[in-house]
Amino acid sequence: MPTASSSADSNWDDLLQQGTGPVQESFLDLVSKTRHYVGYSPDVVWGNLQTAEYAEAMLRLVVDFHGIPDDIQAGVTARTARAQFIGREGRTYHVLLGEQALLTNIGGPEVMRGQLRRLTEALSLPGLTLGIVPARARLLVYPGDGFAIFDDHRVEVEGFRGGETITDSDRLAVFRKAFDRLQPSAVYGTAARDLIETALSGT
Predict the structure, then answer these.
(1) Are the CB atoms for 43 and 159 separated by under 8 Å?
(2) Which of 15, 71, 81, 154 could form an SS bridge with 19, CB 3.0 to 4.6 Å?
(3) What is the value of pTM for the model shown?
């Protein structure tokens, strides 16, 4: 799950103990201040494009796994609010999804059908470049965790262990290099739509 920790804010683990709402509100604030974003999500749908139903199912898994307060609706409201910034005020987003993100069953068939339809609509959103890395694509870098780069000066890395915020320039460069090597393996436009529709037909 994406995080919003920094040296200036409460860290992700502290916020998470308060519930999903504080984490998602903090992340929403970060998104609102970001002008240029690149990110890679190998196995789940990017948070800014999640439907309310998909986000609710995702956050239910987080609450159950971590045993935190059940404030899922607050978390869903903040997470889905991120979408409002796509295409606004010159913001740009370049997002890569692994094909597995189209197939990972979050919430069951009905939730997945709604989410996949949302992705087909998102292909034409202004300011958003959405690529999908096919499962059989040849990779130019070894697979790794999902990550997000904000304005080229902050990286958020996600995983079971929690979230990590990276601002060191040398470490930032590693993630930018990883994105640049993942990007040639991705497909866009009609080819991306075909992958989404194939996944949709299988739900």
Answers:
(1) no
(2) 71
(3) 0.91
